[in-house]
Please model this.
Amino acid sequence: MKTLNSFNSRSLPFSHGVQGSIAILAALSFSALIGMMALAIDLTRFFIAQNQLQFLSDSCALAGIAALPCASINSTSTSCAGMDYAGAVEAGQRIAQTNQVPGNEAITDVSFPQSNQVQCQAHLVGFVPSVLQAFGVATQNLQAQSIATVWPQQTSCLQCGHSHFAGAINSTGSLIPVLVR
Amino acid sequence: MQSQRGAAAIEFAIVAIPLITLCFAGLECGLALQRFQALQFSVAAAVRYLSLSQPGDSSARLTAQCLVITGTPNVILNQCADTPIVPGAQLSNTDICDVAQCSHAQQMSLAGGKHLNLVSVSTRDIEMTDFPQWLDVLVFPNIQYSLVQP
Model:
């Protein structure tokens, strides 16, 4: 104890006595601990929201690519006409609504970089880091992007009623296989 | 003048209680967040797995349920082979809904007359039961993901 007391009185110039010095140290360490916990919680929330947004974007691209072939379907015919770009946009945006990030409203844009590709870009504006906002950290914008490609490379419409493999490549470059009917 | 022997020890004893509580709260909080993120990944993996299978495939359904609960697709004798991501989580804590089970609710009708089958996987009331008993049991928020199915 003698060593600790002499250490406290030497190392803290603002302390006039020994009593209460641990309370000051505790207050400082509590603040640091709570700050680090807040940072960890907010960063985890940020990554969880980013993962959800990436899934939303992937699901949009996969739904779009599933709806892309066959602009018109005739149950009595196995042929179909053209690529259904309007259907792909509708399918992509509707499934994106289904997979919304809880508590936030993501905006999804569907586009077609090539005639056999569907690209979805999801934006989440105003993600609030709830704890860190108290320390002046502003709201953040998140985004995710996915591109699905009909595979093998095919620019004309697929034959209706037959299954085809398509690949969806997400932003990390991983290929997600999907069956397109 | 009073003796100051032991004053620091008493002060530390007073401060140590909230300090240790805070440290354990931080650890438990980190564990809960890590498990939630693992569950999120496993639900995404399960729905992607189901998006490649036919609606109503009971074997694929069980595999997907095990993917959600354990994070792996291993099934032995109609049971998940691996340990759950969240201790205590069971197959009944997962819901799988496809066109064979939820009928019209899982079909997306497009303006052009086309229909797409959907499959959704969700978790339900998974609890973090290994929290200290004197704390309220933490229930994870339900996670639900949907994809297009053939």
Remarks:
- Chain B has one domain: 7-149.
- The CA atoms of residues 12 and 117 of chain B lie 63 Å apart.
